[in-house]
Design brief:
CATH topology of the largest domain: Hypothetical protein af1432
Number of domains: 2
CATH class of the largest domain: Mainly Alpha
Radius of gyration: 23 Å
Order of helices and strands: HEHHHHHHHHHHHHHHEHHHHHHHHH
Strand content: under 5%
Number of strands: 2
CATH architecture of the largest domain: Orthogonal Bundle
Strand order of the largest sheet: 1-2
Shape: globular
Largest sheet: 2 strands, antiparallel
Number of helices: 24
Helix content: 55-70%
C-alpha cells in the first residue's frame, strides 16, 4: 500500500480554525471560472462594493452582509450553464463573459444573441434556436436568472449566511426602475446590497475590459435605470480616492480585501463549518451538468466506504471526505458543450477536460483550510502505470488517499448516466475496475469497495 498523505502531513497539523473571509475569497476564484471572468473578479467586486458601502456609511452588520454577498454573488451561476448551452447552442462560459460586456440596452442584447446563437451548428438548427429565443426571450431570460439566483441563495443558506445575504444574492439582477429579473422589483423593493453588488459587477467588468473611463461611462448610462442615482453618486465619491483604482491592479488587492473591517469581524471557521462549506461548494460543482448531479456526494460516499474498509480512523476519513467533495471544483471552468457532449471529444475538448484537476488544485491551494487536500483532489485521474492525467504520476507517487478517491470516482462515473452512454450495472462496473487492477487502479481499494458495497447491501436487506 502506498504512503498516506494525511499521515505524512500529521506532523505539521494546520490550525484548528480559519478566517471565513480568507477561505471564501479563495474559493470565489472557482465562481469566476464558471462566469468566464478574469481571475479575481469576485475579489475585485468585493473591494469596489465594500468601498461604496463604506462611503454610504452602512452599519457594521449590513456592511458585513454586503461583503459576503459580493464574494458569493455568483454561487448559483453554474446551475443555468447546461440550459444556456441547450437554448443558445453556445459555449456557456464565453457567452456569459461576453454578454456582460455589452451595454444594458435591449437592442444590444438582441444583437448579441443573434450573433452568438448556434455559430458552430447547421443553418436550420441555428434558425430554429434563434426563432425560439425571439418568441420566448423574456421568459427564457427570466427563467435562467431565477434558477441562478435562487440556487445561489439556497447555497448561501447552507453556508449559514443570514437572510440578508441570501436576499442579496437572490435579487442580484433586479433593477431600480423595475426592468430587472426575475421579479421585476423596483426602487425601494430591491435590497440595497443587491444593487451595490450589481453596480460593483458592472464596474469591474467594464474597468477590466476597457479601463476607468469605460466603467465611469457605463455607471452614468445605467444610473436611474439599473441603479438608484444615489448609488452612482456614492461610487463617484468612493472612486475619487486615488487608492480606489490603484488597488484594483495591485498584486496586494487580495490581502487588502481580507484586511477590510467586515473580514476582520468574521467568526473563525471550525471543523464543522469547514465541512458545511465543502459540501456547499460541491453543490455548486454538481449543478453544472445534469449528468453530474449529486456526483460529488456519491463519490464522497464511496470514498468514505473504501476508507472505512481499509481501517482509516474518523479524523482521517473526515479529511478525505472534503477532498472527495471538492475534487471536481475545476470542472466549473469547463464548458457544458464539452461536459454534456454526447459524441466523441476532439483534441481541444480533451485538453479542456484534462485541465480540470489542475484548476481544482490551484483553487484549493489558494485556501489555507484546503491546501492539504489539493494534491489528493488533483490526482483523481492519475493511474498506477503513469498513463493518467494531469501530471502523469505513477506507482508510489500516488498517495493512498488519491488511490481511494480514484476508484470511487471511476465507479460512480461508470454506474451513472453519461451523455454518451447509459448507466452500467454495478457488476459490469466492478469488472471494468478489476480488468485494470494493478495497472490503473489499486487492487486493495477495489477489494475494499466490493466489501463495502456487500456490507451496505446486507444492511439494506436486513
Amino acid at each position: 500500500m502506498s504512503t498516506s498523505l494525511y499521515l505524512t502531513l500529521a506532523a505539521a497539523r494546520r490550525p484548528a480554525s480559519f478566517r471565513l473571509a480568507d477561505l471564501l475569497g479563495a474559493l470565489s476564484y472557482a465562481l469566476d471560472m464558471t462566469e468566464g471572468q478574469p481571475q479575481g473578479h469576485c475579489i475585485r467586486c468585493c473591494w469596489i462594493g465594500t468601498r461604496i458601502g463604506e462611503t454610504l456609511g452602512l452599519p457594521d452588520d449590513l456592511l458585513r452582509d454586503l461583503y459576503y454577498t459580493l464574494l458569493l454573488k455568483d454561487l448559483g451561476c453554474s446551475s443555468n450553464a447546461a440550459r444556456l448551452c441547450e437554448l443558445y447552442l453556445a459555449d456557456d462560459i464565453s457567452f456569459k463573459r461576453d454578454f456582460k460586456t455589452i451595454d444594458g440596452s435591449l437592442s444590444s442584447a438582441l444583437r448579441f444573441v443573434f450573433a452568438r446563437t448556434g455559430l458552430e451548428h447547421g443553418l436550420s438548427e441555428r434558425i430554429r434556436a434563434i426563432i425560439n429565443v425571439v418568441q420566448n426571450g423574456g421568459e427564457i431570460s427570466r427563467s435562467l436568472i431565477e434558477t441562478r439566483c435562487h440556487r445561489g441563495a439556497d447555497i448561501a443558506a447552507r453556508m449559514r449566511f443570514s437572510e440578508t445575504v441570501q436576499d442579496g444574492i437572490r435579487s442580484l439582477d433586479e433593477h431600480w426602475d423595475g426592468s430587472g429579473k426575475p421579479l421585476g422589483l423596483a426602487k425601494g423593493q430591491v435590497p440595497l446590497i443587491s444593487s451595490i453588488a450589481l453596480l460593483a459587477q458592472v464596474i469591474d467588468v467594464f474597468h477590466t475590459e476597457n479601463g476607468v473611463a469605460a466603467a465611469l461611462r457605463e455607471v452614468k448610462t445605467r444610473s436611474g435605470s439599473w441603479f438608484d442615482p444615489a448609488l452612482g453618486d456614492a461610487f463617484l465619491r468612493a472612486q475619487s480616492e486615488p487608492e480606489f483604482w490603484q488597488a484594483l491592479k495591485s498584486p496586494q488587492l487580495e490581502a487588502r480585501v481580507f484586511a477590510m473591517k467586515p473580514a476582520l469581524q468574521s467568526e473563525p471557521v471550525d471543523e464543522d463549518y469547514l465541512d458545511d462549506i465543502a459540501a456547499a461548494f460541491s453543490d455548486v460543482v454538481d449543478a453544472k451538468s445534469p449528468f453530474t448531479a449529486d456526483h460529488s456526494n456519491r463519490v464522497t460516499l464511496y470514498t468514505d466506504m473504501i476508507a472505512e474498509e481499509l481501517g482509516l480512523d474518523q479524523d482521517h476519513r473526515r479529511w478525505l471526505r472534503r477532498a472527495a467533495l471538492l475534487h471536481d471544483l475545476g470542472k466549473l471552468g469547463v464548458s457544458n458543450q464539452v461536459l454534456d457532449k454526447p459524441g466523441k471529444l476532439d483534441e481541444a475538448e480533451w485538453r479542456s477536460i484534462r485541465r480540470h484537476p489542475v484548476h481544482s488544485e490551484e483553487i484549493l491551494n489558494r485556501a489555507h483550510a484546503f491546501r492539504d487536500i489539493a494534491a489528493v483532489a488533483a490526482a483523481h485521474h492519475e493511474r498506477l502505470d503513469g498513463k493518467g492525467y494531469p501530471h502523469g504520476l505513477g506507482g508510489a507517487d500516488i498517495c493512498l488517499e488519491a488511490r481511494i478517491l480514484t476508484v470511487a470516482d471511476v465507479f460512480d462515473a461508470l454506474t451513472a448516466e453519461r451523455p454518451y452512454r447509459a448507466a452500467m450495472p454495478i457488476t459490469k462496473a466492478l469488472s471494468i475496475l478489476d480488468a485494470d487492477a494493478g495497472t490503473a487502479f489499486d487492487p486493495a481499494c477495489i477489494a475494499a469497495l466490493k466489501s463495502g458495497l456487500a456490507r451496505l447491501n446486507a444492511e439494506l436487506v436486513a
